[in-house]
Request: fold
Amino acid sequence: MIRIPASFRSSACAVLALAGTVPLALAGDPGFRAQRTDLDAAQMKRVEEVTRPTTDFSRAETYEAMESGAATSIAPVTDDAFSQPSANLGLEGEQNFHLGNALFRKLWISAPSSTQASDGLGPLYNARSCQSCHLRDGRGHPPENDTSAISMVLRLARPAATPEEAEAIKTHVALNFPDPVYGTQLQDVAVPGLAAEGNVSVRYKEETVTLAGGETVRLRKPDYTIKNLGYGPLGADTTLSPRIAQPMIGLGLIEAIADADILAHADPDDRDGDGIRGRAAIVRDHLSGKVALGRFGWKAQSATIRDQAATALATDIGISNPDRPNAYGDCTDREPACLAMPTGVQKRLGDTEAPGPILDLITVYSQNLAVPARRKASFPETLRGKRVFYESGCIACHTPKYVTRRDAAEAQSFQLIWPYSDFLLHDMGDGLADGQAVGMASGRDWRTPPLWGIGLTETVSGRISFLHDGRARTLTEAILWHGGEAEKTRNAFASLPKDDRDALIAFLESL
Reply:
């Protein structure tokens, strides 16, 4: 018997429940879409029918193999599987995609330089290009044996220290506050003539978990430290949060999911009594000043792809852009040597190191990286694993499917997609806690990551690193780290017969 979670109510009903989900003042904000207005009644009914979780596991669902609808890539599976354009882009769209791809891979250099429009790196930074972190547009990994942490960053933050700062967080003006010396992120590289901020070191302590049937799994818990701090000690209340780069596929489609369809699964007061308390991450768009639904980043701290791109350019690479115009990136006033370095701003090109068209094209590229088609969606082992996935309660957070908004960009408009995420915040327990609050997310909260493409992680990235800090080396390890709201589901998995566990993993590997 498959129990459909109570959160899978219709979008229309979800709107009626908003009072317990989102502050009423925000639900009425013109920047916050609390209702679907892009569909008529007949279309809404059809969408509700199509997105209802299946109870038939005898065959694959219609269009299930095309995980991102008409945008799905059917290119041969290689290590470039995550770097394909949406299949339904027109000629102009493809041209802009490839221009954005070139900029995504662009290696920035320190200023001043004879190379036009390529300088301005840093002065403190983590990577020289977007592609350096998102290698082949895939998942990052933690440093091993004190090697480079290029595809993982260490976020730095402290809680509010004054009533004014607490109010800024409450009203979504701020997410948290930077370390007074090192800013929002540890920069482990610097331009010539400048000292880096420090280096990340990780050590693991392992423990053995025994599953039903006697199978054992070794879990590794990381301990992060910073070596060679270049500018003095960290603040006493600064928290460290390691974050590996996330896959870039399907982002435009995630952005095109209606707010109301995500809110339909929120249940912060656990009204249905299932122990799952998904909460919407409400953020404030720094350009419009309006509140919006956070859906990107490990703690759902960004509402749009453009904001993600602008912040990464400025913070990870140190490249100013129209949305983040500080040419010194994450340098603070406690780092005067950094603030004394030259920048790459060239007045003939504008007031920032990356002019508007660069940010526009990187955003277009990020919006249109295709999700690869499913493999083995109809195989008996996959279907068995899908049934186990549903019966174990995984879909309470990993919502299987949505139909995107009709008023989205053409390539993302009205597509049936299968991301397997509710894009909400969940308490994942002490084992995964980083102790760092980000806006509405506590130090135990994480956004449910989408699962599409997860089976191609090793193919694309050359290694397997799951969870926010890459500690899990297998999908089984990743599941066993689930705690908090997901502990019941984790225990259900651990108690399954080995054949059922293997089938569930086979299902995930097909995504």
Q: What stands out?
A: Residues 91-247+287-367 form one domain. Residues 139 and 246 are 5 Å apart (CA to CA). The first helix runs from residue 11 to 16. The longest strand covers residues 199-210.
